[in-house]
């Protein structure tokens, strides 16, 4: 998985989390920290200079 893909995954998860929280009618307060943290992390991962670097590198022996 590349860092660019991780950033896209974080942004998609923020959208899914927000939509599920808004659609569930539990009457509880909405936690803005989780989608905000996912959006900030996703945007930061997309604008990195070395975003083609792989996250899980295989060690060559």
Short description:
The chain is mainly alpha-helical and 61 residues long. It contains two helices and no strands.
Give the arrangement of secondary structure elements.
Layout: H1 3-23, H2 33-46
Helix pairs in contact: 1-2
Keyphrases for this structure?
61 residues, 2 helices, 0% strand, membrane, transmembrane, transmembrane helix
Structural overview:
The protein is mainly α. The protein has one domain. Helix content is 57%, strand content 0%. It contains two helices and no strands. The protein has helices spanning 3-23, 33-46. Helix 1 packs antiparallel against helix 2. The radius of gyration is 15 Å and the shape is elongated. The mean pLDDT is 83.
Q: Number of folding domains?
A: 1
Mean pLDDT: 83
Helix fraction bin? 55-70%
Termini, distance in Å? 21 Å
Biggest beta sheet attributes: none
Radius of gyration: 15 Å
- Provide the low-confidence segments as ranges: none
Secondary-structure class: mainly alpha
* N-to-C SSE string, H for helix and E for strand: HH
Number of strands: 0
Sum up the overall morphology in one term.
Answer: elongated
Supply the number of helical segments: 2
Strand content: under 5%
């Amino acid at each position: 998985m590349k860092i660019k893909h991780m950033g896209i995954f974080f942004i998609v998860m923020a959208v899914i989390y927000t939509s599920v929280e808004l659609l569930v009618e539990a009457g509880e307060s909405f936690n803005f920290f989780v989608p905000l943290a996912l959006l900030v992390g996703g945007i930061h991962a997309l604008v990195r200079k070395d975003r083609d670097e792989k996250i899980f590198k295989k060690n060559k022996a």
